[in-house]
Amino acid sequence: MRDILDLDNFAIDQPGTDAYLALVARCRADLSAHGMFNLDDFLHACVAQDVAETLAPRFASDAFHHTRYHNIYFEDRVAGLPTDHPALRRFLTSNFTLCADQIEGTCLTQVYEYAPLRAFLADVMAKEALFMMDDPLARINVMRYGARDALNWHFDRSEFTVTLLLQQPQSGGAFQYRTDLRSPNDENHDGVTRLLSGDDPNVQSMSVQAGTLNVFQGINTPHRVTPVEGARDRVIAVFSYYEAPGIRFDPAQQIGFYGRSA
Fold first, then answer.
1. pTM of the complete model
2. Which residues contact 109 (CB under 8 A, 6 or more apart)?
3. Using CA atoms, how far apart are residues 174 and 207, in angstroms rounded to an integer?
4. What is the mean pLDDT of residues 97-116?
5. Predicted local confidence at residue 76, as pLDDT
6. DSSP string, 65-109
7. Is the per-residue pLDDT at 42 higher than 90?
8. Residues forming a β-bridge with 167
């Protein structure tokens, strides 16, 4: 695994050591302050490039082109809001997706299944354990964003998201977010309206390099990826972990996300 991941600088395979405990403490502090943490160069740059190049022809022949108009909530109706409320403004999200069964032969499956990674993530988020998803399509997805593709403003429906950037674009493709715009006790629809109108001064923007592992708590922090520009695509892997074993999508969800079922 050391040929794939930088385990010298990120001692996730050495629980209980000073290096491991310091890394957990740093990541917990970042999560508390920003709702996310990054491990830059977690995946060796040459490995990230090799995976991106290996998947390029598969994207050309096998990927599902996912296009969807949606509001920030991914819901057609929101309690207490009329359908024409500005907080329900709709946007287009567009990308190409490869599923877990289409990335065989790359190291992404090894990284996803690497037990020390799951244990480390559980420690950072103070969870008893994390489990791999029991879904042959959804457990790992790789998304490609080409020119004019974008992931638009949304709140996540899961507590956290784990991504690994494989290739950054020439331009655009910045990750933008607004920390804790809502809370369990306050949906802050006026704040959502200001965000969608471009009037929120607390929006932050981040561009990361290939090989970066990002863990993001997006359930109350809306976020988007700005449109990609230039000839080089943005390619990113998404790992799905849960606090309970056996989680999988039903066939209707699989068809909605991937155009096919397992």
1. 0.92
2. 100, 103, 140
3. 5
4. 96
5. 85
6. EEEEEE-TTS-S--TT--TT-GGG--EEEEEEEE-GGG-TTSTHH
7. yes
8. 235
